[in-house]
Amino acid sequence: MGETFGEDDREHWRQILIPAGEPWSGRARYAAAMRFHLAGAMEAEVLEIYRICSRLDDEDPLDALRAYRIGARWIEEVERRRAQAGRGSSESSTIAPGS
């Protein structure tokens, strides 16, 4: 991920890091993901997972990314930021390939 993010991106990262299960969290994560995609920091396939998960507040997009084996660099960056924020990763996934 080596991109440089500005002050405006702090709010977008805060949205990406909203824990699964929070009301409207899926939509907030998708809105932030669109910003990162437009800035060139997120691949289209990763953005698509965030779109799919946007109406599923209880789903952690990283679980779906792992299930589809895409977005390894994005997963690493989010995991790094979660660790800095004191949050771990989600343990389960309800979205799997072929669902």
Could you write a compact summary of the structure shown?
The protein has 99 residues and is an all-alpha fold. It has helices spanning 8-16, 25-38, 44-53, 61-68, 72-85.
Structural features, described:
With 99 residues, this protein is mostly helical. It has one domain. 56% of the residues lie in helices and 0% in strands. The protein has 5 helices and no strands. The protein has helices at residues 8-16, 25-38, 44-53, 61-68, 72-85. Helix 1 crosses helix 2 (25-38). The relative contact order is 0.17. Residues 90-99 have low confidence and may be disordered.
- Distance separating the two termini: 29 Å
Q: Helix and strand succession?
A: HHHHH
Overall structural class, as computed from helix and strand content, comes to: mainly alpha
Strand runs, count: 0
* Tally of helical runs: 5
- Main beta sheet: none
Task: Determine the fraction of residues in helical runs and give it as a percent range.
Answer: 55-70%
Shape, per Cα inertia axes: globular
Number of domains: 1
* Uncertain stretches: 90-99
How large, in whole angstroms, is the Cα Rg? 12 Å
β-strand percent reads under 5%
Mean pLDDT: 85
